[in-house]
Design goal:
The termini are far apart. The chain is about 45% helix and about 0% strand. It has about 70 residues and is mostly helical.
C-alpha cells in the first residue's frame, strides 16, 4: 500500500545522469513516487505557462527605465 502525504515539502534538484543509467534511475524515481522531468520538459512547461501577450511592451518598459534614470 502506497501512502503519499499531501503536505510533504518538495525540493527540486537537477541531476546529471549518464544516458546508460537513465532507465535504472527512472525506475528508482517511479518506485519512490518521485517526479522527474528533463531540462527540455522543464523549459517547455515554463514557456507554456507564460502569457501570450505581455502586460507591458518592451517600449513601455524602456520608457519607465528612462523616466527613473534620467528624472531630475
Amino acid at each position: 500500500m502506497a501512502i503519499m502525504a499531501n503536505n510533504v515539502q518538495m525540493q527540486g534538484v537537477y541531476v546529471n545522469v549518464p544516458a546508460v543509467d537513465w532507465s535504472l534511475f527512472r525506475e528508482l524515481i517511479r518506485k519512490f513516487g518521485w517526479q522527474a522531468e528533463t531540462r527540455e520538459q522543464l523549459l517547455d512547461r515554463f514557456v507554456g505557462s507564460r502569457p501570450a501577450t505581455p502586460a507591458l511592451t518592451e517600449e513601455e518598459i524602456m520608457d519607465e527605465v528612462k523616466a527613473v534614470r534620467y528624472a531630475k
